[in-house]
User: What shape does this take?
Amino acid sequence: MGSSERVHWLEALSCEVQLAVMEFVDGRSAVRAGVAIRGWRGVLLSSCARCEQWWRETTIRELGAPGLRGSGGATGWRERYARLQCSPARARWAAATSRHGLRDRVAAPQMFVSAEGRRLFCYGGWTRLGPQTDLHCCDLSRLEAACPGWGARLPGPSSAARGVRFERCGETGRPVSRGGVQTLTPLWAACGGRDGPSRAHVARALRVEDARDYELVVAFGGAGGGYQNEHNDWRVAGVSSREKAIAWTTIGRRRRGTATPGEEVAARCAHTATYVPARYCEPRHAEGCVLVVGGHTADCSRSLDTVDCLDVATWSWDADVARAEPRLEARHGHSATLVVLDRRAYLVVAGGGTGNILHGFGDGIHEFDDCWVLDCRDKRWLDGPLPLGAVFGRHHTASPALHGRALLFGGGARPGPALGLLDARACVRHALAKRTTLDPALLLDLAPPAASREEDPSQTTRAAPAPRKMHAAACLLPWLPLFVCFGGWEFGPHFSDLWIAKLETEVAPYDSPSPTPVPTPLAATLDDRPRDDEDDEDDDDDDDDDDNHLVTLSINTDHGTHQIQVPRRVFHRLVRDGLLGLTAHPQQHH
Assistant: This one.
C-alpha cells in the first residue's frame, strides 16, 4: 500500500479512544489534527453527544467565559469555537447604518453587553437635547443578521444593517444627575462571566424579593457644556435584559458640587470606573468594588492622578487609595482594562491626556502614548509607565476582548482610523518584571480594519468609519465575533452612524472537502523524538521494547495538573502530529 493510501494510526482507533485522546488537547490542536487526519476529522465533525459536550467545555474553558450558553446561532459548539477563534487585529468593516434609533450622540455614550449575552445596551451621551441618562437596547441576533455569510466574502457597508434597531428601555426611579462623559459601570465581569454581587445583595439594593432578572450598574460623575461644572453625583440601578428596563434606586447622591474632604470623592468627568469582582479584592470588599481612576475637575483645568474606591457591599467611598509611589501621571479621557493573571486582577490604564479637547493645541494640552498597571488587591501602581508606541489620546475607547486583550479605537485631538489590539496581559507581565524599556509592538498591535470592498470616491457612502473621539464602542466576544462603533465626533458635526466590524477567524476550515494541513509550532524537549522524515512504516518495525517504555506526561488544566503514562511510541506520534506542546523533559519508566 502506498504512503498516500495508508490509514493514519489515529484513524484506526475507535471513536471512544479518539474522544479520550481529545480530553488531553486544546481546541486548536484538535482542529489542526482534524485538518491533517481525515479519520479524526470525522470524529471532530461528529454530532454525537459526547463530541458536542467536548466542544462546549473546550469553548467555555479556553475563552474563559463561564456564562457562555447556547450555540450562539451556530449549528453547534464546534462551529461556535471556530467562529470565536478570531483575531481582533483582523477586523473587516461589514455593515453600517444611521437608522438605528439612537440619533446622533457624543460625549462618550456607554455601550455594554448584558451579562447573559442577549442584548447590546447603549447608555447616555449628549444629543441635541443635552446630556442624557436614557438606556436603549438591541438584540445581538439583529447585529449578527447584519453581517451575513460567516466565512464567506462579505458585502460592503450597505442596507444590511437596517435591521439593527435600538429601542428605549423602560425606566423607573429617579436617575443620576445628567452629565457628559459620565460612566455607567456594569457590576459583572466582561466577556461572558457573571461574577458579580450576590443575588441577595442585588435584591437588597433593588428592594425586591426576587432579583434574578436584574444586574446592578453604577452611574458616576459627568460635566455640563464645554466639559465644565463637573459633579460627583452617583446612583445605583438595576438593569433587566429580559424586561428591557432600568430601575434606579435611592442608593447614591444627587448633590452637585465638591464633597467635604473625607466624605466622598472629588467632582470629575472623563474618568474610568471599573468593577473588580470580590474574588480579586481585599476580604473587606465582600461584594467587590468599583475603582475610579483619573478624570478632570475644576472646569477641566486640572486632571487627576487619584484612584478612588467604591465598596459595593456598603456603598461607601475610600478616596485616593493608591497613594504610594510611583503614582499615575495625571490624565483624563484614558481607558482602563481589567485583566486577570495568575488569579490576581490588574487594571491596565492606557492613553488619555490633559487639557480641554475643545481647545485644540496649546499650553497644558498633552496626549499620552503609554500605559500603567494597577494591582487591584494592593491598590498600588507597578513600576511604569510602559510605552505603547502609538497615541490613543483623550476620549478613545477600549473594548475588552478575549484572552486579556482589548480593542482600542479613536481618541485624541487628531484621531486615527486604526484599531489597536492591546495585549493587557503582556502589559502586566512586563510591569511585574520591571521591563519599562521594550519594543512597544509587544504590547500594542496596530491594524487598520479593512473595508469589505474598495472605497469608491464616486460613491457617497464610506467603506469604513471616519476617525472619531468621544464615541461608543463594544466588542461582542465571546457572544459574537463583532466590534461595534457608534457616534462621537472628529472636528465638526456629531456623527450619527453605527458601524459593525467582523473579526476574522484564525482557525483553518477543517470541515472543508479538501483540507490543507496546517503546520503546528512545537517546542519539544525529548532528545530522541522522531525525525520529520521518518515514515510510519518505520514505527511499525520498532523494537517491541518501545511498548515497555512509558513516558509520564503532566497535563495542565484549569482544574489542576494531571499525570498520565503512555508508551513511548504513542508519545512520539502525538508529538509528531502536533498534539502536545512540551515545556520540560518527560520522564521515562520501564
Notes: The chain has ten helices and 36 strands. The chain has a mean pLDDT of 79. Residues 49-63 form the longest helix (15 residues). The radius of gyration is 26 Å.
